[in-house]
Structures are given as C-alpha cells and as structure tokens.
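Sample entry (202 residues):
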Amino acid sequence: MAIKLSDLLWQPEVSLVTHPAQTFGFGCVFAGLYILLAYVPTAVGVYENVISFNTWIFYPPAFVRLVAFLVLGFWSVPFIFVAQLMLGAAGFDPAAGFTSPAVAFATAAGAPLAAAIAARAISLKTDLSDLNGSRLLVLSIACACGNALFLRASLMMSGRGDPSTFPDYFSIIAGDTIGTWAVIYVLKWALTVFGRWPRRVR
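Predicted structure, serialized as tokens:
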C-alpha cells in the first residue's frame, strides 16, 4: 500500500485563516516579526558583545518559523524566505555572511518540513486544540533539527565560505530551541503582567 505525502506531512486548519487575503496578511505580519526578532538582538549588541564566542547559540526568529507554520502551514515558507533575504541584504542577521537564495530557502523550508513530520508523529490535531507545552517542545526541537540539517546542507552545496567556519549542528539546534523558548517565556510573562494590570472601574 502506497503512503501518501499527506499521510506524513501535517497541515493546520486554523479558523483565523480562511481565505488568501488572510494568509497574505498573516504572512506579512510573520515576516515583519521575523525581521524584528533578528534585528533587535543585533541592534543591542547581543551577538557582538554577549555571545560573540558562538553567534548561532541564540536565534529568536526561530520562534516565528514555528508559529508561522502552525498558523499558515507551508504557506509560511515564502514569507520567511523573503524575510531571510531582506535580513541578509540589510546585514541584520548574524548569519548574513552566508546568505544566498539557496540558504535563505533552506532556512525557510527546513524547519516547517520537520515540524510537519513531528506534528504527524505526535498526532497533533489540525485545529491545535491539543497543543500543550510538551508537544510544543517536541515541535520546537524538530524545527531546530530540520533547520540544522537543511542549513548545513545548503551551505555546503552553495560553496559559500570556508566549511570550517560553518556552524555545527549542535549550535544551530541549541540556538533555535533557546531562541524559540526565550520568546515564548517573554510572551508568557508579558501576558501574565497584562492580565494582572488593574482595570479602570466603570
């Protein structure tokens, strides 16, 4: 019995995204957020002054790759691809020296492909109703592993730079996972603070 690709790759069915205009709108928001989360650590000197020993060990935009896929499915890929190209052109990304269309596409496609396989493996519901912390951890690690594999392969095939300077798999996986969960906990903290903010009594 032949196995269909749809049997292996999970796709979301989120009620917020029901037609192409919404897909485009969400995609643009995710692309903007991706660029912002890459720019801010660069602008405040995190990569230069804090983790200059290994600039791959912390990558907050990885959070956007995962969330964009959970909302848009594989439609997230072109938006992240464009965001990655823009980061490379502007020099905001710590990996900008390696940026090329092939590398940008690998960065955009590797994580969601791995997440789709992992989501199918853990039987994640397409409406995300059973998405909890443990499943989110599995998905974030899968995204990081997929990105590490695709990124390393694309760097080697593109022939850009000295292979000895390429990031190792562990650095990419750790950096993506740490970056994803740093953003998750910042958002959790912000929502907690906002929830406790005193309301004006009418």
